[in-house]
Each structure stands twice: as structure tokens, then as C-alpha cells.
Amino acid sequence: MGQDKKASVDLAEVVKRYVDALKASGFEGEVDTSYSTTLVHSTDNSIYQQFPQAVIFAKSNDDIQKALLLSEQGEFRQLCFGPRGGGTGTNGQSLTGGIVLDLSRYMRQILEVNTEEKWVRVQGGVIKDQLNDFLRPLGFFFAPDLSTSNRATVGGMVNTDASGQGSLVYGKTSDHLLALKCFLADGYELDTYKMPMQAAQKIASQDSRKGHIFRDVINSCVENRGKILDVFPKLNRFLTGYDLKNVLSDNIETFDLSRIIAGSEGSLAVVAEAKLNILPIEPYKTLVNINYDNFDSALRHSPFLVSARSTSVETVDSKVLNLAREDMIWRSVADFLDTPADIVSDGLNMVEFNGNNESDINTKVAALTDKLDALIDSKAAGVLSYSITTNKTDILKIYAMRKKAVGLLGNTKGAQKPVAFVEDTAVPPEHLADFITEFRALLDAHDLSYGMFGHVDAGVLHVRPALDLCDDKQQAMLKPISDKVSKLTKKYGGLFWGEHGKGFRSEYGPDFFGPELFLELRKIKTVFDKGNKLNPGKICMPLEDDTTLAGVEGPLRARYDQLVPINIKTSFQDTLNCNGNGLCFNYNENAQMCPSYKVTKDRRDSPKGRAMLFKEWARLQAAQGVELPVQQSAYFDVEKYQVEISEAGELAQLNHEVKRAMDACLACKACSTACPVKVDIPNSRAYFLHFYHQKYGRALKDHVVGNIEKLLPSMSRGASLLNPMIGSNFVNKLSQWFLGYQDLPLLSTQQPEGIKYNYDALSKLSQSQKDDHVLVVLDPFTWFYEAELISATIKLTGKLGKKAVLLPYHENGKTQHVKGFLHEFKATAKATSAFLQHAASLNIPMIGLDSALVFVYDDEYRKVLSETERGNFHVLTIHEWLQRQDLSALELPSVAESITLLAHCTEETNARAASATWKNIFNTLGIQLDAPNVGCCGMAGTFGHESKNQAASHSLYNASWQSHVQSSKVIATGFSCRSQVKRFEGHKPQHPVEFIAHYL
User: Fold this and answer.
1) What is the mean pLDDT of residues 134-158?
2) Which of 7, 62, 141, 604 fits as disulfide partner to 661, beta carbons 3.0 to 4.6 Å?
3) Given pLDDT bands bounded at 50, 70 and 90, which one contains residue 643?
4) Other beta carbons less than 10 A from residue 532's beta carbon
5) Residue 121: what are its φ and ψ, rounded to 5°?
6) Pair (808, 867) in one structural domain
7) Once rounded to an integer, what is the mean pLDDT over residues 398-422?
8) Which stretch of DSSP H or E encloses residue 750?
9) Cis peptide before 542 (omega within 30 of 0)
């Protein structure tokens, strides 16, 4: 693909001419050569990074064919392509130095379903969970279950022959393929399906493109049948690349070319459509969660659990369990997985039973638990305790924890992170414990820590050694460890790549297949793709092609990470630790993370995309000699730093592309808690904007919004005059044109009279007298826009026997931070923190009414202030404070109507989440409260008011909020959420405090 600079420039010109010709050919999709788009497509879920030359977003089969046909013309023949789906592969399968063919953005249609014949036909970009959500009401599901199922595409699953939990019963993706529609490197359309061998041989006799393919594949598979059966492992996970064994039935009476394409990692064809068999959903399901004294006990006990006729057996080690306990995900599973106080579990097996007969499952479970009870009584096999879960929703929560474990490993402390490169070995289950003992000894010899989880029923364990790949010495361990693990799996009759394919481990292919069978693979590659245009270097190369097979030592993402300044790594390690897991690509509209990506489907508009952009921006600034200060200094003492950001070379393009991506961020902060590694984009965004605007200046609207907290006291005094103007169509249009904002909320015309704050008087009270008081911290939006909530709080606290003292208004600084006014934000944080520290010395509880603003004191303030400046004051959210009160004094009438609580996404993803607490409070008051999972309402502070964001804001509201608001009595915890409902529905939901106060 061109090794020197001149060749690279020449190739770039060829790509440009190709893109221009493609756009002129009637191509209806999109082609993007921007720095930002090629950057976010340069990584997947692996340790590798390879920049493509362009990204093609096809919208149809015709688009795919046009792109490939054009590449057969003249100078374009030198171009190569890499098909890409969800980008969830852990071995760099979808990375290419050529042109990416991305099917995930647009080709997401479920084309046809036939429940009588039990099949569905889909485009390659359909997401696995999307498909099952569609099939569930019909009583069916698509079986292979992946940890990345909420963002992995069917096309990607076919190309990696994906499998996961339950594969012992349900098999792999290839076991469910009925037909494929593919396009070869030259644009030839190839349809594949199972057929009688006689029909296949008839096609093979034809002098045609299809005939040549059939002939060569049949010759390779039939003539080498004995050798294939000897070499291919006798495992549930038979992943080999090109599946020479299963192209033919055992009796060689049928032929299925789809089995060659399954697992081919995009090196043979672009999978545009797949016809899949679907299975009826079995109505009964039980999960037995077994705790062990150590992980080795869990592994050695797994064959017994498989013999209990279970559907699947999943395992998790103590490292993963402890990471899960520290994550928000544990809140949803603690009731099922927490062990008794006197038990410390260092291993967990999850045994699933499902079927159509409840009594049959109960019999199996009873037989298992009887044996478990005996083991616990005799203190044998390391079994400590177990729990049983039958509710399907709860079981899904437990599996969500297990699935998130993949990403949670990336959140370990320190520079050494568990990384995927030897993590999907497969051996016969009966050898797994012994294999792992040797595997662990190998890693222990290198003094490496590691996390483990996996599918012990199939003999597959995910082992991720912790390495700092920015350290050259640790980077050098990749190859020797891989070599040893490859030999170890062979020793135990296993496979080095039991689930996640080859990718940059393709160098081990010749050793696994042996020279004779590897030659047959090359023959197949040749008849499909003689020019080596599709994913070159992966799995094998064509005959008469000397392309080097992709190896584990490169191209590593760490070669870029090493160049990021150490002070930026230290200050923004939450963002720069993004490991590519891609949970932020979750297609589910009710998932809080990430709202902007859900609207645009543009990966630049995701936490992962923005983290990559921020890191690359910091790297290129350093390369240009720009000194980026550490985070705290950046907010205040900027004069001592060179703050003029560079626009040299590549940065001329990247500066503005990063700004575009950051502008689409809602700053909801869901990523900072919902992401497994806690990537904090709003914090990085504020830092970037701080520097960007020093070079390019600011629009007037930024100054207005950034200073709104300063302006509100003056505006409030003229509320009666301003409100008629703010609410008029003329001023709304004027605001859209002049400031770019619309539908602004009306100011409160009267502020409630609470007890005035007098520090000296309060300090003279005894502690028992102080206990009868509560200090209300006034945030700018509640105080100046929702005085009725303050009044309701005063009323409610009074009914509880407490005197509400309204603290003097101090700016919070949230709007300054969101807009990147970091110098001003630190000044605000310093002043407000000093005041709140002083108030906290009274030892009277302080409460805030809008959680999104309360969290600023614990999060953003701590990031910009020293410990002395920040102090140790703590502001409780109103729900935290209420939970600590004796609510028996409240007498509420019977509330017959159904009440639905919709929580602010910033709040619900925080460790101090509201929904569960409010449900407990309302339950104590005798009121049934429903709290469904919902995504972002689309307002998120000022985002929904910006004119340019109207389509995105409305789309988000319609996706996850509208149906609840229109079908039930809704209360909402967020000020911005209540404002959003008001502008779209014409009425404003109450805050839970208002609701309770109304009934007092």
C-alpha cells in the first residue's frame, strides 16, 4: 500500500480521484475522508490502530457493488477495502490501511421474517439486540449471544462466526446461517446457501465466476477431507477462518459455501444480507449463581455443572467481581449476587436452565441444589453459597453485569490494563482447569496480573493479562507470551482463537493448519480475491502474493498513546483510558449513554469517538510544541502557559472537527459513570473548548449562556416585565436569529420567603436545635425559574418538623464549565466552595434540589480545586436527605392513580441515583411508583434550547420520554427534563417533592 512518503501522497491522490468518481457514479451513500472520521475508524475493540484512507457508508447493496466495481478500473485496482460492522472485534479484524466499507450506519433494515418457517432476512448492519427486540413479540430469538450484543452487527457476527453464552446448546453464528448475499472484491454478487452436493458439482462444472469458486472449494474440501478432520479440533468452538470442515455435511451429501464465508473476517466477501434461522423463545428460565472460595474451584467444578443438563455455564473471577461491585451495574444485581457477610467469594459460576417445561427445569434445579447443599455442608469443592433467580428481567440484569465485565477490566487502577491478545483460547472443558493452571503459571512467571471470565461449558476462557503497552519492555512481551499460549493450547488439544478470530494473530495460521492445508486456504483466497483487495494480511494471502500475514506486534495503538504528554494523561486518564469497548454504541434508546450518538449514528458523536479525537488533538498539539497545562492550572493560571493552540499541518483540519464533535455533546455526564472505564467527555470537552476559543474567539451566545448565572439575579428582579417578552413569538424568533436559542423558560415572578440565613445566630444553637434545621442550597435554575419547588420544599420540611433555611444564592458554575469558561469556572468554584465550607461548619445538613447541579460540587469542583480549596463539605440531594427522615409524620390521602417517575439521566447514572430511593420513599408513604429506564429527554441543560439542536432534541424526547408522558401521570427529577416536557406537551410535570407537598 505504499511504503515511503511519495508513495503515500500518490496513493492519497488515487483515493481522492476514486472518491470523486464514486460520487459521480450514482452512489447514494456517503464517503468521508475527514481526519476525524478516519481517526475513529482506525481502532476497534483491540490494542491495534490503523488509519484508513477513507470511509464508505453504504446505504444499499447497489452502493456496495458500485464501490467494488469501480475499484476494478485502472489505477483504482491498487486500492484495498476492509468491511466493517460494529467494530467490536478484539483482534483488529475490521482495521485496514485501505478504505473502510461501513455497513453499520445505514444498512440496519430487517427485511423479511417468516415465523412459520422460522427464518428472518436482515441487512448486514442490523444489530444483534435490535434483531432480538424485533423478534421477541413474535415469540422468537436469534440464538448466538455476545457480550457486545447491543452494538455488534449481524454482518460482523458472520465474518467472525461469533458465539458466546450458551453455545454448547445453541452453537455459533454459522450454525444458524441459511443463506448469504455477498459481494466479492470485483463487485460480483454471490448468493450462498446449503444445497445437495450434486447441485454444487453441477455449478462447479460451469465456466463462470461462481463455477470457478465452487470447483476450487469442493476440490480443497473433498480431496483433503481426512487431513481436515484430523487437524480441526473436536470442539464446540471450531473457529478456524475458512471452515473447510463444515462446508460439507458429514456424509458429504450437501454443500454450503456460507460456511467458508462465516469466519472469513471480510477477507473473501462483503456480507450485505443474511438469512438466519430463528428459534422459539423457551418460556421458562432459571439461573443458579454459585459462589466459590477461589477461581480454581469454580473452574474444576464446571464439568459437573455441565453434566447437570444445563443450558450454559458462565464463570467470573474475583478481579472481575470486585470491579463490578465498584460499578453502578452492581446496584441492579446486588440482591441476587451479594453473599452473606461472613462469606468472601473469589469465584462465581452462573448456571442457566431453560426450556418449555417448568417442572422439568425445577427437577434439574432441585437435583443440582441438593448436591450443592451437600457440598456446602461438607465444605467440599470450594462451594460457599448459591442463589436462585427465576425472573427473566432479573436474569437479564445479571447477564448485563457479566457482559459489562469485558469493559470493566479496562477500569483497573494504574498504567497496566488487562488487554486482549491471548484471551479466547478454547480447550476441551475437561482439560480447562489444568490448562488454566499452566496458563496462570506462565503469566505469573512474567509477574503479570490478569482477569478471567468466560464460557466454561465450552472450554473457552477469556484471560486478559495487564500490560502497559506504552512501556516498550512490556510491549515486547506480546509476541513471546502469544507464542507460548499458542503452543499451550495445542498441547491440550485446543485452539488459540476459540471465539474472537485471528485478525492480527493471523501469523499463527500456518502453524495451526500445517503447510498443506494452509496452501488450500490460499487457493480459496485466490479464487475469491486474487488481487488481495479485501482485508489483506488477515487469515491468509492469495497464491503468488507475498503479503506478510498480520502479526501480534503491530500496528499498536500504543505507538500513538506514547506521544500524548504525560501531564494530559494524568489529568484526563478517565478519557484517555478508553479501551475501545464501545458500550457507548448501545443501540437501545432507553440506555442513558450516549444521547447524541443515538441521534446521529456518527461514531465521532460518541464517548469513544470524542475520547479518540481529544487524545489525537492533545498528541498533535504536543507534536507542534504547544504546552498544554495540567488540568487545574488550565482553569486559572493560564498566563504562565503557552495557550495559543496550533493550527499547523493536520491540526488545521482536526481543530474544527473536534469542535464539531464536542458541540454535539449534551454534557449529560452519563458516560462518566455508565461507561465501564468512566470516560468523562464533558470534562475533556470543557478543557478543549477553553483552548479552542482562545484562538478562534467566541460567539455572543456563548458569553450570554456562560454568564447566565450572574445575570439571573438582575433578570429576576424584572421578571414581570421580561416574561411577556420571553414568551412572545417575536422575541422567540429574535432569540433564534440573534443568539441561536429558542423556547426559553419563564422566570419566577415571586421568590418564596424562607428562614433567612444568619450564621452567627445558627452557630449559637445547641446541636439538638441545629438538628431541627436544614440548609437549602439554592441552585440558579430552581431559585430563579422554579420558585414553586422551593416553596414545596419548605412545606415538606416543615411537615417533617424541620426549619428550612435558604442559603444566600451563590453561582454553581455549571454553565461556565459546559461552555469552556474554565478560568471563570475556577473562580466561581473557589468562591462558592469557600462559602459552603463555612456553612458546613454549622453541622446542619445541606440539601440541593437539582441533582445535576449538586453533583458539580463533588465532581467538577474536585477536579479544579486543591483539597484545601474544596474542603470536605457535602451537599445531599433532596432524595438522600428524605430517605434519612422519619416519614411517618406525613399523612397523605390514598393516591389511586399510577405514578411514573422519570429520572434525569445525569442523576440516574450517578452513584447517588434517584429512582430506587424515590421508590422507597413513595412506598413508605403508601404510593406505588413506577420508575422505568429511560434515556435522555433531549434537553440536557441548554442543549435543547439551541436552535441547531432542535431535530436531535425532539428525536431524543420522542424516542424514550414521549410515550410515558402521554400515557401516565409523570413526575420528573430534573429541571431541564421538566422544561422539555413543558415545551412539547404544554404542561410541566411536578418534581417528586412538589407531588408530595401537593397531597399534604
Assistant:
1) 94
2) 604
3) low
4) 19
5) -120, 130
6) yes
7) 82
8) none
9) no
Q: Are strands 279-280 and 110-114 parallel, antiparallel or unpaired?
A: unpaired
CA-to-CA separations, 991 to 591, 716, 772, 806, in angstroms, rounded: 22, 22, 24, 19
Q: Among candidates 986, 874, 992, which has minimal Cα distance to 927?
A: 992
In a domain? residue 93:
yes
What SS3 string covers 197-249? HHHHHHHHCCCCHHHHHHHHHHHHHHHCHHHHHHHCCCCCCCCCCCCCCCCEC
Determine whether 857 is exposed, middle or buried from the number of CB atoms within 10 Å of its CB (0-12, 13-18, 19+): buried
Q: Which of 371-385, 548-562, 642-656, 725-739 has the lowest mean pLDDT?
A: 642-656
pTM over 0.90: yes
pLDDT digits (tens, 9 = 90+) for 563-609: 998 888 888 888 888 988 899 999 988 888 899 999 999 999 999 99
Average pLDDT, the chain: 91
Q: What is the distance between the alpha carbons of residues 982 and 959, in angstroms, rounded to a whole number?
A: 17
Structural domain contains residue 719: no
CATH of the domain at 493: 3.30.70.2740
**SS3 per residue for 882-924:** HHCCCHHHCCCCCCCCCEEEECCHHHHCCCCCCHHHHHHHHHH
H/E element, 572: none
Q: What are 334-346's pLDDT values in tens digits?
A: 888 877 777 778 8
pLDDT digits (tens, 9 = 90+) for 476-534: 999 999 999 999 999 998 889 988 889 999 999 999 999 999 999 999 999 999 999 99
In-domain check, residue 712: no
Three-state DSSP class for residue 8? helix
Closest CA to 949 of 705, 584, 665, 735: 665
The one-letter amino acid code at 848 reads: G
**Domain count across the chain:** 6
- Looking at the chain, the number of H-run helices and the number of E-run strands are 48, 28
- The grid cell for 863 is 477536579
Percent helix, strand and coil across the chain, each rounded to 5?
50, 15, 35
For 447, residues 6+ apart whose C-beta sits below 8 A from its C-beta are none
193-198 long-range CB contacts below 8 Å, 24 or more apart? 193/256, 193/258, 193/275, 194/254, 194/255, 194/256, 194/258, 195/254, 195/255, 195/256, 196/253, 196/254, 196/255, 197/248, 197/252, 197/253, 197/254, 197/255
Please check whether residue 479 is in contact with residue 554, taking contact to mean a CB–CB distance below 8 angstroms.
Answer: no
Q: Work out the pLDDT band at 636, boundaries 50, 70, 90.
A: very low
Report the 10 Å Cβ neighbour count for 91.
28
In which residue are the cell numbers 455508565 written? 674
Residues constituting the chain? 1000
Tell me which residue range forms the domain holding 322: 289-410
Long-range Cβ pairs for the range 643-648 (8 Å, 24+): 643/691, 643/694, 644/694, 644/695, 645/621, 645/691, 645/692, 645/694, 645/695, 646/620, 646/621, 647/695, 648/624
In angstroms, the CA 815 to CA 702 distance is: 10
**Helix (H/G/I), strand (E/B), else coil: 55:** strand
Cell reading at 450: 490478569
Euclidean distance between CA atoms 864 and 631, whole angstroms: 7
Percentage with pLDDT > 70 across the chain: 97
- The pLDDT value recorded for residue 389 is 94
Indicate which CATH number applies to the domain containing 393. Answer: 3.30.70.2190
Amino acid at site 771: D
| E strands, 699-765, in order | 755-756
The confidence score (pLDDT) of residue 120 equals 98
Site of grid cell 493479562? 465
For 803, list phi and psi in degrees, rounded to 5: -100, 120
Q: What percent of the chain is predicted at pLDDT more than 90?
A: 70
